[in-house]
Design a protein that fits this description.
By secondary structure, the chain is α/β, with parallel strands linked by helices. The chain is built from 10 helices and 14 strands. Helix 1 links the parallel strand 1 and strand 2. The structure holds glyoxylic acid. Glyoxylic acid binds next to loops.
Length: 312
């Protein structure tokens, strides 16, 4: 039996040697050098290539039983219609990812409040000009699963007033929660920052659209760290032109890498980072991947299985 790693955007030495050490009798193969595809039962993937000589990439693995996303998100697997429905999909659930995300959001909010982006622009022009800091302390966190909840509680610990919004009803003691489309307006009412940690599902696709931006005030900053396609990019440009919100900090995009010439690059009220708010730590995830592989081999239920209906 064997595990295949289908991840092309990073060096996999840590993950493959760590898995090999943890599972010494299992053959760990890295795409595209898969010599024994018929032995593969478990795949770890991140944005796998869809087509291989007109065939689905999955067809070459006749004994495949489960695929784990290397990240918290699994939309690229769920959106792949060529992936047979009997294959179990799992994802990474890791406190480290939630901590990184919370750190990123806090860093962004503090940088905006203390006008660090503006001072950096001024420095480039050798300009000495004190600016007023942004006072706002109200934050709405959209998506309050393990990642959004960590973002919310980190902000609360730093003195922010947080509201949380989710698709279905969730209760948390530390902050007010809202759910469903009908309560979205209440969740974002008068907030200074909206943070989206939402996964991409049929229900969240383009949730951040023209109609949504009308619920904000012209001082609100949007921070999107969930998935690019939760945001309608054209609607954001229109909303900024209409002064419906103040600006946006975007870490995720409909198409990544963001294409050269995209209007976001030069927009004075948009700040861009290249999908780095939370990056899976290969060392940390070895144990949960190896554990799921062993559960699969023992015919036991896997951990962190994705609900294909819900989309996460
Ligand atoms: C990153 O985007 C992830 O899904 O972990």
């Amino acid at each position: 039996m064997s595990i295949a790693l289908i991840i092309t955007d990073r060096d996999l030495t840590t993950l493959s040697s760590g898995l090999q050490k943890r599972l010494p009798n299992v053959n760990i193969q890295c795409w595209p050098n898969i010599t024994e595809p018929e032995k593969v039962t478990f795949i770890v993937a991140w944005q796998p290539p869809k087509q291989l000589d007109e065939k689905s990439i999955w067809q070459q693995f006749p004994h495949l039983k489960a695929i784990s996303s290397l990240g918290a998100g699994c939309d690229s697997l769920l959106g792949d219609t060529s992936l047979p429905s009997n294959i179990t999909i799992t994802r990474i659930v890791d406190r480290g990812l939630a901590e990184q995300m919370a750190e990123y959001v806090l860093a962004i909010i503090l940088s905006l409040k203390r006008r660090l982006y503006d001072y950096f622009k001024q420095q480039q022009k050798q300009q000495w000009q004190p600016l007023r800091k942004i006072k706002g302390k109200k934050v709405a966190v959209l998506g309050i699963g393990e990642i959004g909840h960590k973002v919310a509680t980190t902000l609360i610990a730093c003195g922010y007033e947080v509201s949380g919004w989710s698709r279905s009803q969730k209760q948390h003691d530390l902050y007010a929660t809202f759910y469903g489309k009908q309560q979205l307006a209440q969740a974002v009412k008068d907030v200074d920052f909206v943070v989206s940690t939402l996964p991409l599902t049929l229900e969240t696709h383009y949730l951040l659209n023209n109609e949504f931006f009308k619920l904000l005030n012209n001082k609100t900053w949007l921070i999107n760290v969930g998935r690019g396609e939760v945001l309608n990019e054209n609607d954001l440009l229109l909303a900024l032109a209409n002064n419906d919100l103040q600006g946006a900090v975007l870490d995720v995009f409909s198409t990544e890498p963001l294409v050269k010439g995209h209007p976001f690059w030069q927009h004075k009220n948009i700040i861009i980072t290249p999908h780095i708010s939370a990056i899976t730590d290969q060392t940390t995830v070895i144990e949960q991947l190896a554990n799921n592989y062993q559960l699969l081999t023992d015919n036991k239920p896997l951990k962190n299985v994705v609900d294909r209906q819900k989309g996460y």
